[in-house]
Amino acid sequence: MTEPHPVPPEGTPPTVPQLDVRAAEPPAADTPPPTGGFADRPPGYPSALVWLRAGILRDWRGVLGAFFATWFYLPVALLLAFWGGLVLAVSGLFAGGLGADDQLPQVLRDAPLIGPLLEAFLTRSGGVLGGVVGFVVGFLGGFLAVLVVPWLGADAGPLTVVTGLVGTAVAAVLIGVLYTLYRVLLEPRLLVVSGARQPSRREYARLRPVLDDCARRLGLPNVPRLLMEDDPVLSNARTYARHVVVTTAVLTEPDDEIAALFSHELVHWRTGDEITSAFVRGVGLPLTLAHALPTWLMRTFPHPATNLVVFLFFWPVLLTMRYVVLPLHARDVRAAEYRADLGAVLTGHVEGMRRVLERRLSFETGRSGWDEAVCATHPPHELRLDALERASVAGVSAEAGEPAVTAERLFGHSGPVGTRRTWLLVGALALAACAGTGGLGVVQWAFFRPQSAVDGYFSALADTDSDAALGFLTDQSGVTDRKLLARLLRAEGYQPPTDVEISSLERDGDTATATVAYRLAGAAQTSTVSLRRDDEATAGFLHGWRIDGGLAALNAPVAGPGVRLNGVELPGDAEGPALTLLPGSYAATGPSSALSETPAETVVVGPGQSAATLQLAPVLKPAAVEAVEARVRAWLDECAKQTVAAPPGCPFRYYGGSAQKVSWKILEYPKLAVELTGPASAQVATPYETQGKVQVSGTNTYFGGTSPFTEEDAFTVAGVATADGDAVAFRPAAN
């Protein structure tokens, strides 16, 4: 424990006894601290992992600001908000100025005193109000369109939004960690490219003893690598993760001021401030890269015109950095500067630090062009002087016991990477995550693959479950009658595809094509089935697959009563929508009558088929011709019984003179040709070579005398035969 500090006499300016406020020195004070090993890691960290963890997890505000501004496209939101507000402001300005008074209700317009006042107010200020309202609406609409709309997709359920945010955060953290490792591991190369070099023998002899002395007073067993930058004008010092870079102008400064600078930089190095800044830059790397160009242009060409042009092109990026990222990161940066100033208190170089700050030497002005985008915010020098004086006075006036500023309080305890309880918790969480991910993977593989959709579809067909089969289709709008389709599948004549096997499956993003081999109607067949990934997710993150198509439209030229599939009568409305069928084979039967019969037909619908045709052509029954001929003969016999020269409605007549006592006799019945015109009707005709023969006899009267006659003539029969129940009817054609 250090001795208590003496209290100076009243009126005497306080001084800082160097040995009382500094940390305990290592026993081997005569030996200069060695340079660090691999990566020149600061002391006090058990491993490089602890060092990186301490820096990465420190500034959560800066990380949150960089993450939000970059990964939620805040500059794009500002740009769209500005133009949206501008367009609606102009629209509101003209709309409000030209028609604001017309929107006033007639009741208020007719009110005495109030009506004219309101009308005058709206006439003179309606355009301004419309412009303001339009700008506010357009600005908010454009801003929220970029921030909110990407998360409000068709399948953006709560779990989808959460998983999307988690995935975005993991990507940002991963990029931040990789960028931090890049900055740390390649830091020597990057500094050489930026102009830093190894110190000369004279520079090393001038600066290294001061650096070692400050390290001993801070209780640091090693120091970072010392590099020089050729700048004879500006006294500057910058700390990186593994190096301290000073300008050549520092060589002309007094030893106590150089020691104050080194004390400041060693605290930065020991507390890992560069790791924190690198991680913040890495999380916002796309935005930081976008900001690098305008800052480089303004720094390289310092002119108001250049600044104006750069601002007009890059103002969303510049404003996002200035008013979002920088303010959130500034708290940690300023706290780091105040903390680094306390290094001069520990090493006893308060007066040197005070003179440096009073002269406003711009050390620690930024570590690179990217640092200017994120880390160039330092506290005002006067506030740093106030904090330095308070710390030094508190160290002098401390009572017996510990000083107000100690290395332990300044640097803290880094500790191990994690306690046993922490590692147990992390292990349990990792195990649960692996188990959950593995379980979800098994569920995805078993139930949400394209193969699962194909297997489920054909299984539903095998179970004759039409509703389940339709559930595997992307489009079910073609189903005209679900109940009829269900009856068709459950009927006895339906045969689903059997021996189904997926021979190949090719996937391309959200689409897939499966080649399916199966047996249908006793024949081996192969079809191509197209699938599409569901937009909607089951449980928020499991996307299944559905089959494109899967329904075949039935074209049935012969429609009407008696047309059946699997014994189920089909509707006879030819003008309605076509009946749609699921894959399988269907037994089709048509109507039957006394004239015709319809042979049974099998309709085969394959999985990739879009249409099927049902012919069902009726044929004439063999007995129908005999029945028609019998009806015709009976009709002819009736005609032959008549005793007139021209039996009405009959196919024969006598064209002689005045005939009396006429009698008819059928010598030969015609051979008829019967052709179906429908399931219950047929056209009856007589071919020329099979005409019938009839004999007519009687007497003719000529000038009061009579003369007998007998003649033969050929005749034909034409008409329509129709089915009349189980009988056949004949209607002769008009002569």
Automatic annotation (TrEMBL):
Residues 1-41 are annotated as: Disordered. GO terms for biological process: proteolysis. GO terms for molecular function: metal ion binding; metalloendopeptidase activity. The chain crosses the membrane at residues 71-95, 128-153, 159-182, 278-298, 304-325, 423-447. Residues 204-390 form the Peptidase M48 domain. InterPro entries: HtpX_protease (IPR050083), Peptidase_M48 (IPR001915). This is Zn-dependent protease with chaperone function. It comes from Micromonospora jinlongensis.
